[in-house]
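To assess whether ligand presence alters the predicted conformation, the chain was also submitted together with iron/sulfur cluster. Input:
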Amino acid sequence: MTEPAALSSAAKQERLVDEEEEFLEAQPFDLLAVPVIGPLLRWRHSRTLLQIPLLAISIVMIFEGLLGPTLSPKNMATVLTWVHFRGALVVAILCAGNLFCLSCPFMLVRNFMRKWIHPRFAWPRRLRNKWIPIALFVAVLFSYELFGLWASPWLTAWVILGYFAAVLIVDGLFTHGTFCKYVCPIGQFNFVASTVSPLEVAVRDHEVCDGCATRDCIRGRREPSSPLVILQRGCELALFQPDKVGNMDCTFCLDCVHACPHDNVGILGRLPAGELMSDPHRSGIGRFSRRNDIAALALVFCFGALMNAFGMVSPVYTVENWLERTLHFQNQAGVLAILFTAVIVVEPVLLLGLAAWITRAWAGVKNSWLGVTVRYAYALSPLGFGMWLAHYGYHFFTGLYTIVPVTQNALAEIGWPILGQPQWTLVGLPKTVVEPIEFGFLLLGLAGSMLVAWRLAQDDSEKHPMRAFAPWGVLCVILFLCCAWLMTQPMDMRATMLAG
Ligand code: SF4
Ligand code: SF4
């Protein structure tokens, strides 16, 4: 795939650096320099401190899911997983960054296991891409609809248990951060979503790195007298700090922060989605324009958001019934397979294919059809994230207080009713408050996608940037209208007492 010819890559890189410098000069920010929060995060055991409560909650959820109430709105496993966890995750990514991976309870258990079990194998080279987690991500969305996971505490508990088992098996066999980088569907969701986050783990001063002899941020800090003894792990995701660009593949684990002997890694403020506006070489990743798998991940992220929301609005039942009657399907799996294929495969291929064709023909962009498609696929990430935010935010805010009665109920059930009797009437914020927030999220996503597409178009066609941009701008508006229409439809209030 060739680089766009209009601006040289050096000029583009220079422009991006200028923009970032301008942005940071205007708002210099390093989370690690903030009183209280900074020292806490720099503490060597900060991640463990964050992971322990999530592990404790996961264990409670597993027990509740297996042994607690069978009605999902009364069970902690379903309410916390499908109402609170998803909503809190996307809001945290919007406000800060990939905080779920930072606090990941699965990694706490994995690290504990690795004290005794040392993996011996390297992940096969052919699998060092995103195709497996893409398939798993689609499988999770598909299973969610097919098995009604939101309505089954028992199945939800098994999903959590299965996740722990998968982490232990994969990272028990394979070295480094294999599960996070090449398997975990939640991680991939977080990686794509956090490309629009305002914070990034990054080098403070590149000149310090230029003079750094040890490169501990990637190699790990070693015992001086015995180099085989690692005192602090380096980046397990193969991201070398001086060459790292953006949040893709970064779990915010802060290992590089603790390993750097020069205290040269911070959690820095940046232009949200700025990393999508250019195509530099990225450590551990390469160029986005050469990663068809990551572009496909960005598309599944965006169109999966549409499918996930479509699966819970009233019109989907009409479409499903029509498909059942027309194709004489006896089971729901076949109908869902057709819907998923239409929304996640056929729709993006047609829409992006057409947009890429117009860009090449009208703006004279020399790149191949696939090259243009891959390049602009990333521009849809902000809009996709806006849709996830609107959807998960809707459930999160309208079901915000449901955590109170399910906790009261769980305590009462084990004979310890210290919080009183469950107040099942507590639900969440009214729709009149939540709906404007949803549309705000969608508009933010639209603005982000348009901006990214515009910057890519400027780079691709100095003469006709508007021609290169127009098809992608129209595509963004079409997708935004689809999202807005979906959010105005009557929606299932899954896993809450308002569920139909
Ligand atoms: S981040 Fe720290 S350890 Fe890594 S190259 Fe720079 S100075 Fe060296
Ligand atoms: S060690 Fe790697 S994954 Fe962890 S915060 Fe640093 S760059 Fe991100």
